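Can't paste images in this forum, so I'm doing it all in text. The chain is below; anyone willing to post the predicted structure tokens underneath?
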Amino acid sequence: MSDNLVTFLHATMRRRLNDLSKPHNLPELLRQVRLDNGTPLLPVKAETWRLGAIGGDGGNTIAVAAADNWYTLVKLRYARHAQPPFHAADFSAIPLPEAPLPVLTLPTAELTGLDNVQLGPLENVETLPDGYRVTAPLYFGKHSGLPQTITVDGRYLLQQSVCARAGDEVRPTSFATRMPCVHWPTDQINGTGDFSLTVSGLVLVVTLRIQLVGDGAGRSLALVVEAVQPRGDGTEQPRFTLVEDKLTIDDPTDPGCVKNTALKQVWRQNAVDAFNSESAQAALRQQLQNTLNLDDSLRRIGTTCTEQLAHVLDSALTAVPPGKLPDGGSEGNNPVDQYLFDRLRLAIADEQSALYPPKILQSVTDPRIEPYTLGEVKLGDIDLDGMGKAEDVTFTDVTVVGASNAVVLPEQAALDAGTLRAKVSMSSLMGRPGIPGPPLTLKGTFRFTMDGDPSPLGGLTVAVRSSALVSALSFSGAELGSLSLTVASLTVEFTDQDLELAVDMGQMTSFVNAALRADSVKEDVRTKLNAALAKDLPQIGAGLSDVVRRAVEEQLDRPDGGRAPGSGEARAGASPSAE
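Text version of the structure:
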């Protein structure tokens, strides 16, 4: 089983998470996530994104253009008001040497479109001492009817420090003067406004740890989101594209100052160049990663996923009464595997579960289990005391009634290297509507030959007061829809005292019944019954597979299965910190 179980569960839930018609669809799940302050996770509202200095040729171009235009404005608008006056031609402007590059900051940023998401296949499964670590990608824009594009909208601040210099100096001039709306000899140009970016080629790779919390009968399963890593959909990195017609430049706020207004068109192009620069692109990717990996976000996503998984298991199997999870009986399994198996054996023992054996066995129609047609059982020769030897003794048209009167207590099941081994108690239920009461009964026709002549056909009744089926089942299939149960072995166990055989053959009845009471005959009946049953194991496995698939799918996909009670609100101890 091991990591195959994890891939099976992932594939089973992935189909449902990616189907908007299913109650467990991923967009709806993410909409349910609430942060610690009660606000929804989506849309993601980021605090200040400091993109930092815009480097490279693009940054230098912005810096020089800003300095040139600043000094042009000084000469045209403000130099005439300087005190003391100065000759503008004696000076020029350069980016401030101590801070020569433009700096881009996003005071607010809101990400929309992350709810149009689909889960991709598992990329890695790592077995841990306490569970598993898995990674899987998230793809966006795949559902019609939801936003097709991821956008980042908000406010920006583009800053450029400049200074006036004398001649060809590379430092601020020491000449001091004052003029309106300008700081001399150093100034900082602040451009603000609204922006909108579209994000293309984005894939988010989620690293998730699957582990247990609690111990013994109080164990529960927890999902811990360890990291969310942005990457490109292919060889290219995700790209943030500025929607230029949504970019605005705020007017100056100081009365009488026209500095920003005069520079507006130049500054707008500077802002465009800043957003499109490789420096900004790299910083945007990093800020996106930082925002998505905030402890609050990861913890709350993990909590919601944990609650949903618990609800899925409760729906597909059965809810666990507090402190009642079976514990022990299997050794050497991964703790997560063991937990899921313990949930399974609890469900099998629960009359309310869809997997309760009487329900499953009565639902199997190919082959029909209740009643079950065993066909023909050959016993060979039997000595009829006082009458000679009955040869080629055969039970024909054997029908078994009561095969669905079967229960498996949790302590009767164990997980052994991926194989479910269980001892099924037969004929232990009494007075249950629709379930044949004890004993387990086999009816059919009894015949043999004696001295070459066929005997008259007689009616046969076999009653087994108490018995058990010792079974071994293995599971295969990529996901629930292709689940296949293989019945590796199925053996009927009963004592000679619990077996009664009786025939009705007219004058020969007493002789035949006396012979059938012999221990050797009963042993032969037990052996031949198991041999006949073994021939049907492939068909029984196929029939069980179909019924179990349908039973679990109906539980998973029922309309009330989509939202866990209290979704978005942490359950005590349900999801530990990723730290």
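The CA atoms of residues 61 and 270 lie 9 Å apart. The chain has twelve helices and 23 strands.
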